[in-house]
Structures
1.
Amino acid sequence: MQEFLVEITTRVPEGTPAEEVDRRRAAEAVRARELAAAGRLARLWRPVGEPRSIGVWRAADEPELRAEVLGSLPMWPWMTAVVTALEPHPNDPGAGARS
């Protein structure tokens, strides 16, 4: 499976009822746990003070990542994503831990 660095920015459409936002956020947390358990979401961070997240995600390729993995997130319609395919670096200090 290919790894991807994904930067996601979520913008809730103006006028969206708070109940809808709360419902989707709760469903998003559930789906993120499911994707992590399935090995699709490896790590996730939120930069301090910013409305975006940065994560390492896994899929066969970018179309699968966007359609089946990220596209399954309840808040996906409100998200924009910058996807960067990753490959191992020969000097990665964590590579030995994964071998």
2.
Amino acid sequence: MSKNLGMCQLLDLYGGLLTEKQRDIMDMYYNDDFSLGEIADHYDISRQGVHDAIKRGDEALEEYESKLGLLDADNAHKQEILEYKKLALDAFNECNAHRSFRSVAEKIVTLLETFDERLADYENPEPQEEESKD
């Protein structure tokens, strides 16, 4: 996993724990692919200030992950789904080879579709709605 992808995932999980400005700077850098100069111009600060904010944010996100382990747990869950999918696919192939097990094979197709839906959640996670601030 590339460092940027890892930071994007950590930012998605723990970004709400950062200050609003730090989260916005990191979002612009990692998710929107803004340069340090572009971010500096937007906030009217130095490039070094942006660099320092990103570095502190990276360290904070990594610290949150080391203490809470949500990303590791999420990755373990995804791996578990992949293993179950493989077992279901093996069972489907065995059942499909025998006419008398066709009904079982059809049920396994439903399982495989469910696994695919769960795995798609990892590829296209639904954005979490932020609570409105009144």
